[in-house]
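chain below, 214 aa
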Amino acid sequence: MRPFRTPYLILSSCLPIAIGILLSCSPSYKQMQSAAADADVLQKFKPNFTVALYNTTVDVMGNHLSGLLLIKKMPDSSTRMVFSNEMGFGFFDFEFKPDGEFKVYSIMKKLNKKSVIKTLQHDFELILMNNLDNSKAVVKTNEGLTYFIFPQTKGYNYYITNQSGDELVRMERASNKKIIVESVMKKYQNGVPDSIGISHKTFEFNIGLKRIEK
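prediction:
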């Protein structure tokens, strides 16, 4: 099976990432205004990964991996992600619980670095959309887009929709000073995105997924 390389969406916008304080390297975002919107609108974009299989590419610091990523919802409501090549060699096996607990069952030696594991964890948590606590969400709007901002242990997760709330335009993770990663999920079918792209801004680390239809 030949792996499908999903193009990464590279966006140049520099967004504000401080709750209550508008910090931006682009003057246009200084016009961002508070908005009255219900963060519950995001629930319809949360992927329903009962069982999904993706052709997957990972490019990290000069290393290229390609293979199959299986995402499966387990009986205890945790989500298991297993990435391996077509020959069955395992790259990693992760578990994400709804309460935020994360477990590494296995990972290949080349990726077995604390910084890489933490990056992968945060990337996949962004697209899984677990623990969206509406009581902590801050909502802003600018140029026809609505920004749902959720504070994390370090930094913030952004879920950005169009003004009507019927399209998830992109997702971002940011520190107090800059955007760390941008992600998109496109062409939902029965609650599961057909394509997922993750692009890091501070170093070479990109992930592309294209769903394999049953």
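DSSP finds one helix and 13 strands in the chain. The first helix runs from residue 114 to 128.
thats it, cya
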